[in-house]
Structure formats: C-alpha cells, structure tokens
C-alpha cells in the first residue's frame, strides 16, 4: 500500500481560478510564476575549455510534510554546442544555445531525528518555518532524490552515529589503522551541517536500506545499511542499523 501525504478536502479558491483559465492564460500565469519562484542567477558555469555550460538558479525555501524539514530546488539552465543547418538541410556551422533544464531538490533539516507522520494520530507541535527568511542565508543544504529519501538517510545517519558512540556498532572496514581509528573517523563526521549529498545504494546482505552520504569539503563517504520499518505508514524511521563504513573517495571534475 502506498501512502500519499497531503491535504484532502475542499478545493481552494486559487486552484479554482487557475483551473478555469484558458490554455493561453494558463501558460502566461505559470511562466510568470516560474520566474517569480526562482532567485536571480549570477554566474555562468563553464567547462574545462571555458565554454558556457549553464547557469543555476535556486528557489526560495518552502515547507514539506515532514517536521524540521525545508526544501529548496536548484534549477540549471543547460547550454550545448549544436549543429546549425541551412533551410535546404546542408550544414552551416556550430553554435552554442540553451537546450534544456535540470532540477535538483535540496534539503535543510533543523534537527534529527525527524519523526514520521502517523495517519490518524494528532501530534501537536510548532511548524517549521520555511520561507524567504528561514532557515536563513547561513543554512546548509544537501541533495537527495526526494523528501522521503532525504529524511530516511538523515535519520539513519543519526542512528548510526549514536550506535557507534555507544559502542553498540563497530564501523569498518575502513582504510585507517585499527578499529578505534575507524570509530573516531566515523564520529568526527557527526555533524548534520557537513552533509552534502545522500544517494541510495544496494544494501547487499544484512539490511534492506542503504545510503551513501557525502560530506562537503571532504573526499569522504559514509555508507550506512539498515532495516527499513515494516510499517509503511511511517517510512522514514529505520528499525536498526546493521553496518556503517567510512572511506576516502577520489572525486574527478571533467
């Protein structure tokens, strides 16, 4: 069974207005709204030959259905060198032009662990503020495929660090000398603000959830394997962490 979070109820007035528009007016409004949510870009990115590859814009922060979690999207306008042809189909020359966009969600988590939503249970708490002023210019953001992946990986990170700190989980193998060195290396990464990206991985044996966590400023990755909850109504809180590994990685820019 798939759980879809969201409000169910009467249609709001804004939706009624938008859905009543003609196709031409709907296009006009949506294009205007798209430009409104994107903050101004400043610098073109280039490849190793100093040719323009694109420009990245970000949206303002906005709320998710999960407590403590704000989302902000990066939208990159892509440029590419293309063939240009005359009307008769013969080749004319090359020219660089905008060809498409890429969108990447990013997340800021105020604190861990993030509790799951329990359908039918009323929880009283202060909503996390996510707007043009919050969480603020100094906030750190990390990339993930979607809200659930971001929070499940972050909760597994929090649980793994707690298990290592308590001595209930031995990290490794790692490429430093000795079990205690591995443990200290894992604990040195215990800072949510350092996380740069999370990506799912194949868990292999010993678990059914796996994430690789990358850290800003370090060529280091932490791989965490754990057991997902059996209860699909709360998919972000792992039952247990079965292994954690820290390793140096080589990152190449092309």
Question: How would you describe this protein?
Answer:
The protein is an alpha+beta fold. It has a domain at 57-74 and 104-248. Helix content is 20%, strand content 31%. Strands 1, 2, 3, 4, 5 and 6 form a 6-stranded antiparallel sheet that branches. It has a 4-stranded antiparallel sheet with strand order 7-8-9-10.
How much of the sequence is in beta strands? 25-35%
Looking at how many chains there are and whether they match, the oligomeric state comes to single chain
Low-confidence stretches: 1-5
Total of helices: 4
Distance between the termini: 42 Å
Q: SSE order in H/E notation?
A: HHEEEEEEHHEEEE
Helix content, binned percent: 10-25%
The general outline is globular
CA-atom Rg in angstroms: 22 Å
The strand count comes to: 10
Q: Provide the residue-averaged pLDDT.
A: 87
Topology at a glance:
Elements (H helix, E strand, L loop, with lengths): L12 H7 L3 H15 L7 E2 L5 E7 L3 E2 L5 E17 L5 E19 L32 E2 L3 H19 L13 H10 L6 E6 L8 E7 L4 E8 L12 E9 L6
